[in-house]
User: Fold this.
Amino acid sequence: NAGVMQNPRHLVRRRGQEARLRCSPMKGHSHVYWYRQLPEEGLKFMVYLQKENIIDESGMPKERFSAEFPKEGPSILRIQQVVRGDSAAYFCASSAGTEETQYFGPGTRLLVL
Amino acid sequence: GQQLNQSPQSMFIQEGEDVSMNCTSSSIFNTWLWYKQDPGEGPVLLIALYKAGELTSNGRLTAQFGITRKDSFLNISASIPSDVGIYFCAGRERGSNYKLTFGKGTLLTVNP
Assistant:
């Protein structure tokens, strides 16, 4: 039973480019969460999605960041016009229900040059 | 937003020693969780606590949910080299049933 999968594991972008991070939840999970981890920091909540719905995006910057979880396919975290400050590890987690255990993927390490 | 204060920031111990780390918050939490993160990987859940005063073990790991609901600790007994990693406390604040708040982590180094 595969766990949460994220790709790419590493992503290098130049300032101004777009970054697309993908997350496939565990089989049977329809709840997806994105967290960001800056160097030597804990994870910070960004957004919570269920299939085709954004439930809570209170932790996501209002500009340049967007997230989706379509009916088919992985969840996507999209960062437009990346800046150096976007360099971080982005983790996706999934759960079977709202209050259920969140299982984390291996993360995508984004480096903006 | 809410932050969790986790201490110590780092620990260097000898193999076989016991270690303790803790986490405090300024507000009440309904759930406390302890995760371990290895380099280049995502956090892996070690122990989950759901009731004030609850004491739960997972092998050599023991964690407790503080009576005040504002703190938790994690103990590791008889440490081994593979215990090396970053340990994070995390929790769900009262009123939130999904959003996890994380501490900054405790980096544990075990000398063989």
Observations:
- Chain B touches chain A through 21 residues (CB under 8 Å).
- Chain B has a mean pLDDT of 94.
- The first strand of chain B starts at residue 5 and ends at 7.
